Amino acid sequence: MINRFESRVATDLLEKKTVLVTGGTGSFGRAFVKILLEKFSPQRVIVFSRDELKQFEMQTESDSQLPTMRFFLGDVRDVDRLEMAFRDVDIVIHAAALKQVPAAEYNPFECIRTNVHGAENVVKASIRAGVKRVIALSTDKAASPINLYGASKLASDKIFTAAHWLVGSKVEPKFSVVRYGNVLGSRGSVVPFFRDQISRGSESLPITDPRMTRFWITLEEGVAFVLSCLPLMQGGEIFVPKIPSMKIVDLARVMAPRMNTHVVGIRPGEKLHESMITSDDARNTYELPDRYVITPEQPQDRAAYHPAERLVREDFSYVSDKNSEWLSDEVLVGLLAGLGISPAA
After folding, report:
1. Are 129 and 87 in contact (CB under 8 A)?
2. Is 268 left (phi over 0), alpha (psi -120 to 50) or beta?
């Protein structure tokens, strides 16, 4: 499948630059670092995370790139450690977060410390260290949140968009947010869950609700989208990609065409359909051919925000069940094949 965002990546913004990714040993971080090293020529790539074992494993896999790579043990809860790591860094990609919905519900203090206080610390450290551009990764669950994870990411989004004004008269750092849907095949997603159920010989696959829909993006597209937002940043925006939807029941049918399904009910904190742009955001949302841009609510000069774009209509919303683009069975089979997953016989 063609990566729809790859052509918009600005190579000159990455050449000979120092790039740091928080949560760099996670699914996104590993893919981000791999693509950055393969396709660009950064001066340094810094992986910032708190898991020494995952850093060791990543170092072992990246032996040929060690002169470029740096690994920094630390936690986004520690602002002093962030400031130390951010010295002489040009670009920060903030991917560190606690992301499991049930875990956040049962451990709210931990979720807030990492997702909210951690976001605050990244902003403070970026300003003090003189970072040039900062992009924070968000989630569709941050739009009209109904669980703590989504609420904490909404708070994080607000922190990063407000940071645009904290910079004051300075041109940099620029702060923006990227918000997208479920990553196909990432840890904790439904695809590896279904795969495990199939490999165990389960008689049927559990479906929370046959009506449930989700937005889908591949890991490679997610990385390319983040990189393609760098040249578009003016500060305070939330970038939302145009990506396809699919029913969970259709995903199950494609992965296991001969298996039955059974309905188990929606779990606490789970939505029937996901939203990435609410109707309340529509008055500040511009449309590009491949993405939407939610601008700050009170920009000093709205005309300065991507003048080539056009505002969406006032009643617009971007919800997974009302999407104009849907994943076909054929495309999904190809995407699953890229993950080494074949439909069950």
Report:
1. yes
2. beta
Which is more confident, 77 or 101?
77
d(CA 35, CA 27): 13
Can the peptide bond before residue 42 be classed as cis, meaning omega within 30 degrees of 0?
no
294-321 pLDDT, tens digit per residue, is 998 765 555 555 555 688 998 999 999 9
141 assigned to active site: yes
Per-residue pLDDT reduced to its tens digit, 28-81: 999 999 999 998 989 999 999 999 999 999 988 866 567 899 999 999 999 999
The secondary structure of residue 326, as a DSSP letter, is B
- In order, the DSSP letters of 26-63 are SHHHHHHHHHHHHH---SEEEEEES-HHHHHHHHHHTG
Residue 207, strand partner residues = 263
Give the integer Cα–Cα distance in Å for 46 and 320: 35
Whole-number Å distance between alpha carbons of 38 and 58: 15
> pLDDT tens digit string along 245-269?
999 999 999 998 888 899 999 887 7
Q: Indicate the residue type of 8.
A: R
Q: What is the pTM of this model?
A: 0.92
CA atoms of 188 and 196, how far apart (whole Å): 12
In the structure encoding, which two tokens stand for residue 290, read together? 């491949």
Q: Of 17, 132, 141, 153, which is the active-site residue? A: 141
Nearest-5° Cα angle at 113, 111 to 116: 85
Sequence length of the chain is 345
| Long-range own/partner contacts, residues 197-202 (CB < 8 A, 24 or more apart) | 198/255, 198/256, 198/259, 198/344, 202/259
